[in-house]
Amino acid sequence: MARAADARDWARTGLRGIGNSLYTPFAGVDGEDIDWDAYRELVRYCVADLRHPMLWCTSGVAEFWSLSIAERKRLLEVAVEVGRAADSDLVVQACTAATSVQDCLELTRHAQEVGADIVYIQTPMMETHGGEGTLRFFRYIADRTDIALGMFNSPSSGYVLSAAESARIYDEIPAVCATKEGAFRPRNSRALHALAPDLVIWECDLLVYRAGWLREGIVGPAQLGTVGYLHETPQRPILSQYWELVYADRLGEAVEHARVTGMDRFEMEIGSWFTCYPGRPDYFTHWGGAFKYAAAVLGLPVGDHPDSRPPQAPLPAAAKAQIERAYRNLGLV
């Protein structure tokens, strides 16, 4: 675990590679339970089979908004236990986002106690008074914990920090060492790097990596929370091969690899089901049912209630057909 005082030194080398954001496999008539065996198998698959070096727990893909505090704690505990049994060097990242600062503090203290390496706090989802309110939220957590902290700038919050607001949090909270920039605003990430050059940035607009931003030091060599396990298999590790080419600054080969393997075509063919509900097309979402259907196509366990919990909607048949077709065209099934 990275202590607050050491967070920035640790982040420079500790955050590298694919960090898998884990879904939550539900069970029961209406998904009121969690299939713990399926979750353990997912963790083992990511760490032991795919050999990905990082996990990202209880975040958007996990549907944290629909989980109880007790469930979120147990999901992290199982990830640490099972993941570290497979790889003692595994980096475990925990998202402790909550509307209540007290709930966020409880989850952050728990993450510190059970051995998570870093905690990410998504910009609060309700009644956020801009960067000033978010800074106050971070300061409250940092003053009461001793663990590395990261920002998580997602449009699903309804409010995303500007470069200046993020840089101020970084300047005033020494434990903050990284940020997941999930709002598809590469210009903002570039501005943030100029203001906070030592902050480890992950930019969700992946074209910036092909543009040499890693070489320039604008972004870091880590996917801080993605679903890499849905983009390759142990028999065909095309995503891992792609990122190793990027990390080695062999960008031309990386681009050709993405074309030849079908990775680029797959991104177009699978569509926007992971992040867009058609009934609310202007809103960025983490559609749990879409992630779990993709996992089921790959043969991963998703529990006997594969849809999301409320307030998300069931995944429609058209989405399932499109997702399955994209995987078949990619050749992973």
Automatic annotation (TrEMBL):
Q: Does the keyword Lyase apply?
A: yes
The signal peptide, as residue positions, is none
Please indicate if the UniProt record lists Lyase as a keyword: yes
Question: What InterPro entries does this protein's entry cite?
Answer: Aldolase_TIM (IPR013785), DapA-like (IPR002220)
Determine the domain of life of the protein's source.
Answer: Bacteria
Pfam hit, one: DHDPS
Q: What are the UniProt keywords, alphabetically? A: Lyase
GO MF annotation, one = 4-hydroxy-tetrahydrodipicolinate synthase activity
State the family named in the UniProt similarity comment for this chain.
Answer: Belongs to the DapA family.
Name used for this protein in its record: Dihydrodipicolinate synthase family protein
